[in-house]
Amino acid sequence: MAAPFRRMASRPLLQFLSCFSRTATGNTGFRQFSSTSLCRATLPTDRVTERASSPWTLMAAVCLQRLPVISADDSPIEQQFRQLMQQMELEKSLLSDHEIRLLEDAERLSRKQSNSYDSDEEEDSRNQDIVLTQDLEDSWEQKLKSFEPAQRVRADVDKDLTSVERCLADSLVLLAEQQVGSEKLWLLPHIQWQEGETLRQTAERALASLPAAGFKATFLSNAPCGVYKYKLPKAARTESSVGTKVFFFKAILSDSGPPAAPDSSFVWLKKSELQQYLKPAYMTKVGRFILDL
Amino acid sequence: MSVALSRCLCRALSRQTAPLLSGEHHHAVQSPWFAPVMTLKTSAPLRAEPKKKKKVDPRREQLLRDRLKKKLKRLEKVPPEYIPIEDFIHSIFIILLQRERSIPSLSFEEKEGRALLLKEWSHYKREQHMAEVKAIELALEAQREALEELKLESEELYQAALKPDPLLFPFSHEGPVNTPPKTQYDAPDGKYNDITRVYTQ
């Protein structure tokens, strides 16, 4: 892949050069997807675009996120701090009723076991021998142990990229393998815009058109959260289609539906894993609005 | 003229009633029911005390009743007792019992260690916060760019994108929990005895 590397190195230079060129869409020499947002910002925006005459095809894509289900594990400093806080709170606190009862019971036991015990001196010996507070504690402990919580981390599910249940502590993004031009690429599921519908409806259609997907999502707003433009290779350019603008819409997964077949063409990825699947230019654009907090 | 007329009428009436009177004197003794007209005002039942069905009496009785009711109300009017607020009633044991915890005092190294850990923690938290702020700023920038591009494309789509979504709120999402939910878990019903005291005024 020597040629693209060369082109990627020369891209800043070309962008710098093209900033001074007065042609609006005449950025040549980019075979790959390239983002031209930098030079677009400095170009004079004097083109009055009517929808009919705009050379860009519109597409809408959906960024479907499954939010974390369990709390994240503590980092080492967080663990230390947690212990410190618990210790400090214990030191600053007073004894509770339960603890006082424990102390009294212990005292009474020690008095009973000592030789100089006289049961007549007991002030009120009504019910205190029946249930000791320690026994209560033990019974509570037993009840807790009889409950088996589900496992937090399951390594086998984590490895299955198509499962929604993987990596419950992180937020996952859905990626689908779709045909773009002549190649099949991994990207956020998108679909072409049609006349008479808003972009958000296009995004909803994009989600529904995924094969074997029963996803129920809540779309967060009518406005797109990001955009990615790319120009078609010079050979494929015509008067009416210079390139494509893909608008991204954010959605939160509310119901994953039935589990998908293992050979389906979509994966759930954490933000750190997205790098391996997406093209670098695409990744820079998309990574901005995918929050990994 | 009218006087003469009335005198004629009186005479006519007297002439008519004279034979009646004469004829019915016997009758008056035999049957008191058929009393002549002239004796109507003077017969026995009608000479009794008349029933004074005047409007003043019912009104007076009602006034009396009202006054009695008012007096009763004033007697029965006791201010209602205040409902005690359970939260403000302290138990005596809070003051009586000795609740001091006996803990060993900390060594100097321990205190130093704690201070250092607190400083590290504040640094860590600050880093976290700055990262969050930066991430949010990036996301906002991405959205702004997207809206600019959309505006260049088509005005109507841009306007449609700017409209707020009325169906989004109320939006709720369950936050992260400690352990993932168990499928097909039957949670046991919690039994409890409700001992809240209910007061009525």
What does this entry look like structurally?
The complex is a heterodimer of chains A (293) and B (201). Chain A is of the alpha+beta class and 293 residues long. Among the domains of chain A are: 56-70 and 153-286, Nucleoside Triphosphate Pyrophosphohydrolase; 75-104 and 133-151, no CATH class. Helices cover 35% and strands 19% of the residues of chain A. In chain A, strands 1, 2, 3, 4, 5, 6, 7 and 8 form an eight-stranded mixed sheet that branches. In chain A, a hairpin with a 2-residue loop joins strand 2 (172-180) and strand 3 (183-187). The model of chain A is unreliable at 1-50 (pLDDT under 50). Chain B is mostly helical. Chain B has a domain at 58-98 and 108-162. Chain B is built from five helices and no strands. The interface between A and B is large, with 56 and 46 residues.
The top-level CATH class of the domain at 56-70 and 153-286 in chain A is Alpha Beta
Question: Portion of residues in helices of chain A?
Answer: 25-40%
- What's the oligomerization state? heterodimer
User: What's the average pLDDT of chain B?
Assistant: 80
Unreliable residue stretches of chain A: 1-50
Residue windows where pLDDT falls under 50 for at least 5 positions of chain B: 23-28
SS-derived structural category of chain B: mainly alpha
Structural class determined from secondary elements of chain A = alpha+beta
* Spatial separation of the terminal alpha carbons of chain A: 34 Å
Beta-strand segment tally of chain A: 8
> How many helical stretches of chain B?
5
Alpha carbon gap, first and last residue of chain B: 84 Å
CATH topology of the domain at 56-70 and 153-286 in chain A: Nucleoside Triphosphate Pyrophosphohydrolase
